[in-house]
Amino acid sequence: MDPQLALHAWETGDTVSLATFPPADGILDTMKTSRIALSLACAAMVASCGGSSGAPTGAGPTPTPTATPTPTPTSAQCSLSSRQSWTLAQLQEWYLFPTLLDETVNAANFNDLQDYIDALVAPARAQSRDRFFTYITSIEEENAFFEQGASAGFGIRLGYDTAARRVFVIEAFEGAPALGQNMDRGAELVAIGTSEATLQTVNSLMANGGPFAVVQALGPDTAGTTRVIRFRDASGIERTNSFTKTEFALDPVSDRYGFKIINDGGRQVGYINLRTFIDTAAPDLRAAYDSFRAAGVTELVIDLRYNGGGLISIAELMGDLMGRDLDGQIFDRITYRASKSQFNSAYLFDPTPQSIQPTRIAFIATGGTASASEMIINGMQPYLPDTDMALIGENTFGKPVGQIALDQAACDDRLRVVAIAVENADGNAEYFTGLANTVPNTCRAQDDITAQLGDPAEGMLSVALDFLEGGAAACTPIAGGPATTQRAIDRDFLRPERPNTIQRNVPGIF
After folding, report:
1. What are phi and psi of 461, to 5 degrees?
2. Is 104 buried (19+), middle (13-18) or exposed (0-12) by CB count in 10 A?
3. Which of these ranges, 80-84, 138-142, 159-163, 386-390, has the smallest mean pLDDT?
4. Which of 65, 125, 137 is nearest to 95 (CA)?
5. What whole-number distance in Å separates Cα of residue 91 and Cα of residue 112?
6. Is the CB of residue 2 less than 8 Å from the CB of residue 497?
7. Residue 144 to residues 50, 89, 344: CA-CA distances in angstroms?
8. Quick check: 214 and 188 in contact, CB under 8 A?
9. Are 390 and 8 in contact (CB under 8 A)?
10. Which of 17, 90, 23, 9 is nearest to 48 (CA)?
C-alpha cells in the first residue's frame, strides 16, 4: 500500500468504528430494547468491538465462541488461500454494500490478507463508504483491549505537524512509563534512538521519511521495547530519558481531568472527556453523571476530540445517562443489508439512577472523532432544541457504519466486516462527510496543547463554554465537507501504516 494513501486512510480512526460487544454471558438483555442482534463473538460499529451483540437462541450465525480453547490450526485451514476463501464468503454474506464488493479480484495476486480485503472493498472506498473500515485482526488482542483496556507502550498519544516537521505529545496516560518521567501534554519529541549515541532528530526523520519514519524509530508495540527519547517538556526544559514499553491498562476516563464540574461565572457546567468506548468506561461514566445529578447540572461539555470510537454498548449507556425523561424513546437504530433485515433493531433510552436531562450540550470534536463518538452526537440531536446543541472544534470524521466480528478461532482471525448502518431517531445515517452539516450549530476552535485537557482556558473548551453561555452568536461556524480537509492546522495523529486494535480505537497511542 502506498504510504501516503495509508496515512490518509487511517487518519481518523476509520478502523475505530462503533461496535456491538456481547455481554459476558453472551445473552442480550431485551428488557428495554427491540434489538435482535447477532450471536457473533462480537458485533461492532467500531473498528473494534462494541455494543450488545448477544442474540436470543437460534438468531443469527453461531461461530465458534472465542472463549473456547483455540484449536491447533492446520496448515491447510490457515493457509493464505484458505483464509482468503473464508474471508470472501463472509463478505459475500454480510457486507453492507454488496453491489460495491469487487468479486472479480484475483486472490492469487495478493500475498497479504489485508491487501486482498482492501481490493475487494475498493469500490465502496471510492465512494467513501468503507474507508478501510473492513479489516482482519486478532481475536485475542481485540478482546484484551475492549474488555480490559490492555495495551503495551510508553503511554502517550502523539500528533505531528507536517510543515514544521515536529511531533508533540497531545495526551499522556496514567499508570504508563511516559507520564512517570514528566512527559505530558504539550511536550515535544526532539530526538529518538536505541541509545544516546544513536539519537536521530525528529526533524531529520520527518524530512527523510515522513511520519512513518518516526513511527519506525519508536519501535514495535511490544513490552520490553526500549528507546532513548530527548524531549522538551511543556515548561521548556529539555530532558533525555530512557523509556521502556510496558503493559498498562488504559483508563478511558482520566482520573486527572476525565470529568469535573466547572464553575463558569456562577453557572455549573459538567465536563466529560472520554478517551475510548471500552467496557471499563461504564463505572466512571456512571460516577460522572451521578455527580452532575447531585449538583443539579444540566449543561454539559462532552469532549470527544481524540475518540475514534468503540463499543456501542458504552455509547448507548451514555445515551441512557442523558435520557432521564426519555424512557422508551429511540436513541439509535441499527440496520443491515436487505438480506439480513431480520437483524435490524432499535435501542430505546433506558434511564439509570444516575441519569440527567441535559438542557444544553457542547460536543468537542476533531477529524479524529469517529464512529461511536459520532453516534452519541447524532443520537442526542433529535432531543435538544436547535439552539441548545453545538459541535465545537472541527468537523468529525464521518463514519455512520459499523462492523460485526466474524471469527475463525483456529487461526486467531477476527474479520471486522462493515455490516451495519447506524441512524438516530430522525433517520439520519448519512454523515459520511462528518456531522458539521447536520448539527444545527458549529463553532470553530483549535486544539490548544499548551493547556491541559479540562482546563477552561484551553482553546476548544473555552469556545464550548462560550457557546453554553451565549449560544451560536459567539461562534465562527465550522465548514462542512470531509473532516480530512477541515483541519485548523496541519497536524494529525501519528500512527503506523497498519494500526493494531488499540491504535485504531485510540488514535496516536504509543
Report:
1. -65, -35
2. exposed
3. 138-142
4. 125
5. 17
6. no
7. 13, 27, 28
8. no
9. no
10. 17
Contacts of 338 (CB under 8 A, 6+ apart): none
Collapsing DSSP to helix, strand or coil, 350 comes out as: coil
Residues counted in the chain: 510
Q: Is 49 exposed, middle or buried (0-12, 13-18, 19+ CB in 10 A)?
A: buried
Look at residue 20 in the predicted model and tell me its pLDDT: 28
**Cα diameter, the chain:** 68
Rounded-to-integer distance, Cα 117 and Cα 108, Å: 13
Q: Which residue type sits at 157? A: R
- Amino acid found at 436: A
* Alpha-carbon distances of 477 from 296, 382, 386, 395, 436, rounded to whole Å: 30, 20, 14, 10, 9
Q: In angstroms, what CA-CA distances link 279 with 16, 347, 412? A: 15, 18, 22
Structural domains in the chain, CATH included, are 3-148 (no CATH), 151-249 (2.30.42.10), 259-334+343-399+423-491 (3.90.226.10)
Q: How far apart are CA 221 and CA 279, in angstroms?
A: 22
Residue 182 is placed in which grid cell? Answer: 514528566
The tens digit of pLDDT for each residue in 16-50 reads 222 322 222 222 222 223 222 222 223 344 433 33
Task: Provide the pLDDT for residue 479.
Answer: 78
DSSP 473: G
C-alpha–C-alpha distance, residues 177 and 111, integer Å:
37
Q: Which cell goes with 1?
A: 500500500
3-class SS of residue 50: coil
Which pLDDT score, from 0 to 100, does residue 144 have? 81
Do 418 and 403 meet the contact criterion of CB atoms below 8 Å apart?
Answer: yes
Which H or E run includes 462?
helix 459-470
What is the residue whose three cell numbers read 484484551?
A: 144
What is the rounded distance in angstroms from the CA atom of residue 335 to the CA atom of residue 337?
7
Backbone torsions φ then ψ of 41, nearest 5 degrees: -60, -35
